[in-house]
Amino acid sequence: MRVIGLNEYQVRMSFQVKYFGMLAEIAGLSDEVWNAAGGLTVGQFRAQMLDKYPAMRDKKFKIAVNQKISEDFVLIETPAEIALLPPFAGG
Amino acid sequence: MEKAHKPKKVFVQGPISPDFVAKSIASHQSKTGIGAHAIFLGQIRADQKEGGAVTGIDYTAYEEMAEQAFHDIREAAFARFELTCMHIYHSLGLVPTGEISLFVFVSSPHRRAAFEASEFIVEEIKANVPIFGKELVGEGHVWKQNT
Description:
heterodimer, A: alpha+beta, Ubiquitin-like (UB roll), 5-stranded mixed beta sheet, B: alpha+beta, Aldehyde Oxidoreductase, domain 3, 8-stranded mixed beta sheet, 3 helices, globular
C-alpha cells in the first residue's frame, strides 16, 4: 500500500481576498473568493494574482494573511482572509 | 502585569473639527496630575500635482487590521513613555484641503514624555497602519504614499 500525498490528492482550497486603494481600483472590486489548489504559499498566490491582474505588476503592495503582513514562503491555511495592501497613507 | 488599555474607537467619518479638539482639551481639566499635553494635528495640504492642486483626500482603511495596529501603538507608547492618557483620532472618507485628518493627544506629568510620545505615535501611524488616501486633483486623483 502506498500513502497518497496531499499534492497527489487534488485538494482544493478557497479563501477571501480583499483589495484596498489603487489595487481595488485595478481589480474593479473590493473583495472576492479565491479558489486554488491546496498547499498554496503567499508567493504562489501573489503569482496567480499578477496573472489575473497584470496591471498590478508595477505596483508595490504587501500581502496580509489574517491581518498579519506575511512573507512569500508562508503557507496559506484556511480559513484565511488575505488582503492586498498598497503603500500606507495615514496621517 | 502590564496595565491593559481598552481598545478605543479611532476612526471618525470626515474631518476632525477644531471644536472637537477644544472639547478634548477641556475634558482633561479635572485630571490634575497632568502637567503637559502634546497635540499633533495632521492637516490636508494643497500639494501641486499634474492636473492641479489637491482639493482633498478620500481615506479608506483595512479597518479591522488598522484598529489592531492603533491598539498596538497605544500599548507600545504607554510602555515606553510616562503618560497619563492618550487619544488618537483619524478620519475616514473625504477630508477637504485645510481640514484636519489626524488628531494625536498625549498627556503626561512632564513635557519631555509628551513631546516624545507624540512624535513616536505619529511616526508609527504613518508607517504601520493600513490606511489609504486618494488625493483628489481636478476631475481625477492620485494615490497618496507616506515617505
